[in-house]
Amino acid sequence: MIEKYFSINEVEDVFNAIGKIIRSAQEWERDYKELAKILNIELDDEHINTASLNKLNEKLKGESKLSQKDYENLKCVIDMRNYINHEFFLKDFDKPFVEIEEILNKVQFYIFEANDVESNQIDHFRGSQIRRPTVFD
To answer: Rounded to an integer, what distance in angstroms lies between the CA atom of residue 78 and that of residue 40?
Structure first.
């Protein structure tokens, strides 16, 4: 079940929700890059701090650091994040608030879940037994 993080009743609520989603996505990206550093992932001619999430995801899969399932799940969330950053306002901003609320809550939920996947992996490689259950389990 998708949790409700936002109630969208006016345009201002949309902008506030988008801002929170972008912040969550940036935190997730930071953690994904931290995982890549822990795993000593090298990117061809590109510093890890400027690598895109798609490049990191491809590289982790290519070096067998991600299962096919995790790769596909994270790819889906990367696509959701890219949709917010590059398409939402052009495609869906004029939809009814109830539909926008559903979209934004779904994206926020999956970004949080993806962040938990990365946090679980980081904790694992640091020797921690802590494991957060995720919707992807």
So the answer is: 22
Q: Is the dihedral of CA 97, 75, 132, 42 positive or negative?
A: negative
Joined tokens for residue 31: 């953690």
| Residue among 14, 9, 35 at smallest CA distance from 107 | 14
Per residue in 15-63, pLDDT tens? 999 999 999 999 998 888 888 888 888 766 566 666 688 888 888 898 8
Neighbouring C-beta atoms of residue 89, cutoff 10 Å: 13
pTM: 0.90
Identify whether the C-beta of residue 39 lies closer than 8 Å to the C-beta of residue 65: yes
If one counts every other C-beta atom within 10 angstroms of the C-beta of residue 57, the result is 21
How far apart CA 119 and CA 124 sit, in angstroms, is 8
